[in-house]
Amino acid sequence: MMHMTFYWGNQVTILFDGWTTSSWISYSLSLLACFLVSTFYQYLEDKRVRFKLVSAAKASNPPPKPQIEDPLLQQQGDGKTAGGSKWSAARFAGAALFGLNSGIGYMLMLAVMSFNGGVFVAIVLGLAVGYLVFRSGDEDVATLVVDNPCACS
Fold first, then answer.
1. For the chain, what are the domain ranges?
2. C-alpha to C-alpha distances, 38 to 25, 43, 131, nearest whole angstrom
3. Rounded distance between C-alpha atoms, residue 46 and residue 39, angstroms
4. pLDDT tens digits, residue range 55-107?
5. Whole-angstrom Cα distance, residue 103 to residue 88?
6. CB atoms within 10 A of CB 39
7. Alpha-carbon distances, residue 19 vs 26, 31, 35 (angstroms)
8. Which InterPro entries does the record cross-reference, listed alphabetically (predicted)?
9. For residue range 15-28, what is the model confidence (pLDDT) as tens digits?
């Protein structure tokens, strides 16, 4: 039976039937894995945003300022963007990184939905440590706000 409220204990199923813990050792290793994956999520998000900024800087000097006031009213033009043509390799790479990071983010969300308190704490701590290490020094915060509409970052 799946828990519908937070509980504390070392017996938890995370994501798959095969990922079940029954001892404190397996539970601790699972919490460590959740912590590392959530830290890796922040690392990938940092790399994706930096990749996008670098590709935009190479395509146009200087890079255009983000329009925070009206992001939905930006003109579409002729299909060209700051990253080059509409179907450039840089845009495909950025989309692949976004897809990978989104998949990891949703897997973390599903792991939290195990309702185990330890899993929740491990993931939140991993996201916080990853943010501190990889993303807290971001200079261009406006790009991050406009760029990532996901609530999971």
1. 43-62+80-144
2. 20, 9, 10
3. 11
4. 777 766 655 566 566 556 555 555 555 545 677 788 888 899 999 999 999 99
5. 23
6. 21
7. 10, 12, 15
8. Cop_transporter (IPR007274)
9. 999 999 999 999 99
